[in-house]
Amino acid sequence: MNKAIITVVGQDTVGIIARVCTYLSQHNVNVLDISQTIIDGFFNMMMIVDYAEADKDFGAMVGNLEDLGDEIGVRIRCQREEIFTRMHRV
Q1: Digits of tens for pLDDT over the chain (90 positions)?
Q2: By CB neighbour count within 10 A (0-12 exposed, 13-18 middle, 19+ buried), where does 30 fall?
Q3: How many domains is the chain partitioned into structurally?
Q4: What is this structure's pTM?
Q5: Where is 32: in which H helix or E strand?
Q6: CA angle, corner 26, sides to 72 and 45, nearest 5?
Q7: What angle is formed at CA 26 by the lines to CA 12 and CA 36, rounded to 5 degrees?
């Protein structure tokens, strides 16, 4: 399993979750967990995904998600799980 953390932050609009999940589904990325909140009109989502079966390499996926964020008016960041795991070991 190759896990990554995806965060999405920005002004709330219709279809943010749908657009992100559609991209992930189209590229064989499995959503393992998802949490989202809207506070005073601001959308915040965190996802844990498994990209082991993805049809794109990790770098391409990161770039595509950043581009998708620009297209829909939010900021999308995607980082490998190891970054978070190592941070908590220090």
Answers
A1: 999 999 999 999 999 999 999 999 999 999 999 999 999 999 999 999 999 999 999 999 999 999 999 999 999 999 998 776 666 665
A2: middle
A3: 1
A4: 0.90
A5: strand 30-39
A6: 45
A7: 30
Sequence-distant (≥ 6) Cβ neighbours of residue 43 within 8 angstroms: 8, 9, 10, 11, 12, 13, 16, 36, 37, 74
Two tokens, residue 88: 């908590």
The rounded distance, in Å, linking the Cα atoms of 30 and 57 is 15
Q: What residue numbers bound the domain in which 27 lies? A: 3-88
With 0-12 CB in 10 A as exposed, 13-18 as middle and 19+ as buried, what is 47? buried
CA 75 to chain CA centroid, nearest Å: 10
Closest by Cα among 44, 47, 45 to 33 = 47
The CATH number of residue 12's host domain is: 3.30.70.260
